[in-house]
Amino acid sequence: MPGVRHVRNPLLIGWAWLYAVYLLIDQARLAQWAGHPIVMRSQALFESLGAGYVVAALSIAAYLIGTIAVDITGIIGARVARSVSGLLERVIQGSRAKIASTLNRRWFRISTPAHNLQMRLRGESPDIRGLILNYIAGQYARAGAPSGASLDFPLELVLERLDVSAMQLWEDSAEQYQEIDRLRSEAELRFGLILPLGILGGVVCAGTSWWNVPFVLLLLFFVLRQAVSSRLRAREMVATLAYLNQVEVPIVAGAIEVAKELVKDVEDPSRVTWVGAMAGGLSAIGEFEASQAIVEEAISGGIDVREPYFHAIEDVVAEWVPELCFLMERMREEAERDSAKAPDSGTEGDAEGSAS
């Protein structure tokens, strides 16, 4: 049951932390604390109430510790994943440079596993990205956008908001929602247990033999692997349901609804027009950074900001995101300056050639 899982996770994680901290504290320090007046009064109270009340009180403490540990583990895990992902990105770029320069198969063997690990750390996979790309393309096609326009939509933003879409299944398809919730809960439990299990493993190795370290590390690796796999399966289910149009990704659906209104009076809207319309749509639903990102992504992908269609939507976009129009105008001015310099440099080169 979903409610039971939400109580189970912090409770088990909290008990694991209590036990790990208990083993870490020196026995002499425990004896010293036992003589403290507050500890003595608490012990007398628990003895008068009975073992059941002690277990209940410790369970409440474990639950509170577990809820805090889950949040802290999520924050630390996200930062570690970003750091490792950035490091792997540099490795991948270096490997691709080596591939381009040497065509050495050894760099292929380095680049591919590093890229796969980087995606898994971000909660992504080639299947998830492919399903979401197809979902976005389908939404654009139903809105009447030209082919290729969906490639300008910021995919990373959709992947970040993917988990929120599962809540739409709560009423329409409770079984699917419970399965997704179960996988998320399993991942959360394992992520939360990694640190206390690591501490327990260190205490065991210190008390027995350090030759047990490889076994502890192997155990932690499998727990982490199960956590990552459960999270990926949950996200793959949501991505599949989005592809099948059983759930909507709000940021995509909301922006497209506004964009369709913006382009309805434009005759034969091009890809550039849809860039401006989607920028206006994203701004209308409060995604201001994404509205600028979609324009920058389109320009980096080769769209010419001097194209006449780029002006066609500018007046409508100005109603939603005036700062975007300033960005578009600045980009046009830079492009016009670059194009004006090109003939001059060519003329100078021809003059130098004829003089020689």
TrEMBL record:
Q: List every stretch annotated Disordered.
A: 335-356
What residue intervals traverse the membrane? Answer: 12-30, 50-72, 187-204
Taxonomy, superkingdom: Bacteria
Q: Which keywords appear in this protein's UniProt record, sorted alphabetically?
A: Membrane, Transmembrane, Transmembrane helix
Q: What are the Acidic residues biased-composition ranges?
A: 347-356
Q: Does the keyword Transmembrane apply?
A: yes
What this protein is called in its record is Type II secretion system protein GspF domain-containing protein
Organism, by scientific name, is Ornithinimicrobium pekingense
